[in-house]
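Notebook p. 47: complex prediction with zinc ion.
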Amino acid sequence: MTTPPFAAPTEAELDVVSAQLGRPARGVLGIAARCVCGNPTVVATSPRLPDGSPFPTFYYLTHRAATAAMSELEATHVMVELQDLLLDDELSAEYARAHAAYLADRATFGEVDEIAGISAGGMPVRVKCLHALAGHALAAGPGVNPIGDLALARSRWSASVCECETPGRATPQSATPETAT
Ligand SMILES: [Zn+2]
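Predicted complex, C-alpha coordinates below:
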Protein backbone atom coordinates (compact mmCIF):
# COMPACT_ATOMS: atom_id res chain seq x y z
CA MET A 1 0.00 0.00 0.00
CA THR A 2 1.20 3.45 -0.86
CA THR A 3 0.01 7.01 -0.56
CA PRO A 4 1.97 9.95 -2.10
CA PRO A 5 4.72 10.38 -3.08
CA PHE A 6 4.84 7.55 -5.62
CA ALA A 7 7.70 6.15 -7.66
CA ALA A 8 7.00 6.79 -11.35
CA PRO A 9 5.40 3.74 -12.99
CA THR A 10 7.66 1.54 -15.12
CA GLU A 11 6.81 0.47 -18.67
CA ALA A 12 6.19 -3.07 -17.40
CA GLU A 13 3.75 -1.76 -14.77
CA LEU A 14 1.90 0.36 -17.32
CA ASP A 15 1.69 -2.64 -19.66
CA VAL A 16 0.06 -4.71 -16.93
CA VAL A 17 -2.38 -1.89 -16.08
CA SER A 18 -3.34 -1.47 -19.74
CA ALA A 19 -3.96 -5.21 -19.99
CA GLN A 20 -6.08 -5.12 -16.81
CA LEU A 21 -8.16 -2.21 -18.13
CA GLY A 22 -8.35 -3.45 -21.70
CA ARG A 23 -7.32 0.01 -22.89
CA PRO A 24 -4.20 2.15 -22.65
CA ALA A 25 -3.52 3.33 -19.09
CA ARG A 26 -3.90 7.13 -18.83
CA GLY A 27 -2.53 9.59 -16.35
CA VAL A 28 -0.95 6.97 -14.08
CA LEU A 29 1.17 8.67 -11.42
CA GLY A 30 2.25 5.53 -9.62
CA ILE A 31 1.22 2.15 -8.26
CA ALA A 32 -0.73 2.59 -5.03
CA ALA A 33 -1.30 -1.08 -4.18
CA ARG A 34 -0.06 -4.42 -5.44
CA CYS A 35 -0.88 -8.08 -5.57
CA VAL A 36 1.49 -10.40 -3.70
CA CYS A 37 3.11 -11.13 -7.08
CA GLY A 38 3.98 -7.45 -7.51
CA ASN A 39 1.41 -6.62 -10.19
CA PRO A 40 -0.63 -3.43 -9.67
CA THR A 41 -4.03 -3.69 -8.01
CA VAL A 42 -4.61 0.07 -7.60
CA VAL A 43 -3.14 2.93 -9.59
CA ALA A 44 -2.94 6.55 -8.54
CA THR A 45 -4.33 8.60 -11.40
CA SER A 46 -3.73 12.26 -12.14
CA PRO A 47 -6.66 14.50 -11.14
CA ARG A 48 -6.37 15.94 -14.63
CA LEU A 49 -5.91 13.41 -17.44
CA PRO A 50 -3.51 14.06 -20.34
CA ASP A 51 -6.51 15.08 -22.52
CA GLY A 52 -7.41 17.78 -19.97
CA SER A 53 -10.47 16.14 -18.44
CA PRO A 54 -10.83 16.14 -14.65
CA PHE A 55 -10.60 12.72 -12.97
CA PRO A 56 -11.80 12.46 -9.37
CA THR A 57 -11.00 8.77 -8.78
CA PHE A 58 -7.42 9.20 -7.63
CA TYR A 59 -7.16 5.60 -6.36
CA TYR A 60 -8.39 3.45 -9.20
CA LEU A 61 -8.90 -0.28 -8.75
CA THR A 62 -7.52 -1.97 -11.87
CA HIS A 63 -7.11 -5.64 -10.95
CA ARG A 64 -9.70 -7.72 -12.81
CA ALA A 65 -10.36 -10.25 -10.07
CA ALA A 66 -10.70 -7.45 -7.52
CA THR A 67 -13.04 -5.38 -9.68
CA ALA A 68 -15.12 -8.48 -10.40
CA ALA A 69 -15.37 -9.23 -6.68
CA MET A 70 -16.54 -5.67 -5.95
CA SER A 71 -19.10 -5.88 -8.76
CA GLU A 72 -20.41 -9.09 -7.21
CA LEU A 73 -20.82 -7.35 -3.85
CA GLU A 74 -22.55 -4.41 -5.49
CA ALA A 75 -25.03 -6.83 -7.04
CA THR A 76 -26.12 -7.93 -3.55
CA HIS A 77 -27.47 -5.84 -0.68
CA VAL A 78 -24.02 -5.10 0.72
CA MET A 79 -24.06 -1.43 -0.30
CA VAL A 80 -27.36 -0.84 1.51
CA GLU A 81 -25.93 -2.56 4.60
CA LEU A 82 -22.78 -0.48 4.50
CA GLN A 83 -24.76 2.70 3.91
CA ASP A 84 -26.84 1.91 7.01
CA LEU A 85 -23.67 1.53 9.08
CA LEU A 86 -23.02 5.23 8.49
CA LEU A 87 -25.89 6.00 10.86
CA ASP A 88 -23.30 5.28 13.56
CA ASP A 89 -21.66 8.55 14.57
CA GLU A 90 -18.20 7.10 15.07
CA LEU A 91 -18.14 5.27 11.75
CA SER A 92 -19.54 8.24 9.87
CA ALA A 93 -16.82 10.44 11.40
CA GLU A 94 -14.16 7.95 10.25
CA TYR A 95 -15.69 7.96 6.79
CA ALA A 96 -15.58 11.75 6.70
CA ARG A 97 -11.91 11.59 7.67
CA ALA A 98 -11.32 9.09 4.85
CA HIS A 99 -12.86 11.61 2.43
CA ALA A 100 -10.53 14.33 3.72
CA ALA A 101 -7.50 12.03 3.48
CA TYR A 102 -8.44 11.12 -0.08
CA LEU A 103 -8.67 14.77 -1.10
CA ALA A 104 -5.39 15.59 0.66
CA ASP A 105 -3.56 12.78 -1.15
CA ARG A 106 -4.95 13.92 -4.50
CA ALA A 107 -4.16 17.57 -3.80
CA THR A 108 -0.45 16.74 -3.70
CA PHE A 109 -0.80 16.51 -7.50
CA GLY A 110 -2.62 19.80 -7.87
CA GLU A 111 -6.07 21.25 -7.32
CA VAL A 112 -8.58 20.76 -10.12
CA ASP A 113 -11.48 23.19 -9.82
CA GLU A 114 -14.08 20.98 -11.54
CA ILE A 115 -13.72 18.27 -8.88
CA ALA A 116 -12.91 20.43 -5.84
CA GLY A 117 -14.33 18.77 -2.72
CA ILE A 118 -15.42 15.69 -4.67
CA SER A 119 -13.65 12.47 -3.74
CA ALA A 120 -14.93 9.09 -4.86
CA GLY A 121 -17.22 6.20 -4.09
CA GLY A 122 -19.89 8.39 -2.51
CA MET A 123 -17.72 9.80 0.28
CA PRO A 124 -18.24 11.54 2.64
CA VAL A 125 -21.85 10.49 3.35
CA ARG A 126 -22.92 7.91 0.76
CA VAL A 127 -21.78 4.43 -0.32
CA LYS A 128 -22.01 4.48 -4.11
CA CYS A 129 -19.03 2.61 -5.57
CA LEU A 130 -17.26 -0.21 -3.76
CA HIS A 131 -14.51 -0.29 -6.41
CA ALA A 132 -13.44 3.24 -5.49
CA LEU A 133 -13.72 2.65 -1.74
CA ALA A 134 -11.79 -0.63 -1.90
CA GLY A 135 -9.17 1.08 -4.04
CA HIS A 136 -8.70 3.72 -1.37
CA ALA A 137 -8.56 1.12 1.40
CA LEU A 138 -5.93 -0.92 -0.46
CA ALA A 139 -3.78 2.15 -1.09
CA ALA A 140 -4.06 3.73 2.35
CA GLY A 141 -3.98 0.49 4.33
CA PRO A 142 -6.39 -0.77 7.00
CA GLY A 143 -7.99 1.77 9.32
CA VAL A 144 -8.28 4.72 6.93
CA ASN A 145 -11.41 3.97 4.91
CA PRO A 146 -13.78 1.95 7.11
CA ILE A 147 -16.29 1.17 4.36
CA GLY A 148 -13.53 0.14 1.94
CA ASP A 149 -12.06 -2.10 4.64
CA LEU A 150 -15.44 -3.74 5.20
CA ALA A 151 -16.01 -4.23 1.47
CA LEU A 152 -12.64 -5.96 1.15
CA ALA A 153 -13.39 -8.10 4.19
CA ARG A 154 -16.69 -9.20 2.63
CA SER A 155 -15.16 -9.84 -0.78
CA ARG A 156 -13.95 -13.21 -2.08
CA TRP A 157 -10.84 -11.51 -3.47
CA SER A 158 -7.67 -10.95 -1.43
CA ALA A 159 -4.49 -9.07 -2.27
CA SER A 160 -2.58 -11.89 -0.57
CA VAL A 161 -3.75 -14.53 -3.07
CA CYS A 162 -2.53 -13.99 -6.62
CA GLU A 163 -5.25 -14.32 -9.26
CA CYS A 164 -3.32 -12.43 -11.95
CA GLU A 165 -3.47 -13.46 -15.60
CA THR A 166 0.30 -12.86 -15.82
CA PRO A 167 1.71 -13.18 -12.28
CA GLY A 168 4.77 -11.06 -11.58
CA ARG A 169 4.83 -9.48 -15.04
CA ALA A 170 5.11 -5.94 -13.62
CA THR A 171 8.36 -6.74 -11.82
CA PRO A 172 10.42 -8.85 -14.24
CA GLN A 173 13.80 -8.09 -12.70
CA SER A 174 13.03 -8.65 -9.08
CA ALA A 175 10.61 -10.42 -6.81
CA THR A 176 10.65 -7.68 -4.20
CA PRO A 177 7.96 -5.25 -5.34
CA GLU A 178 7.61 -3.43 -2.02
CA THR A 179 11.14 -2.07 -2.24
CA ALA A 180 10.04 0.02 -5.22
CA THR A 181 7.48 1.94 -3.18
ZN1 LIG B 1 -0.68 -11.42 -8.83
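Notes: The beta strands are 28-34, 40-45, 59-61. The pocket of zinc ion is lined by residues 35, 37, 39, 162, 164, 167 (CB under 6 Å).
Next step: compare against the earlier run before touching the bench.
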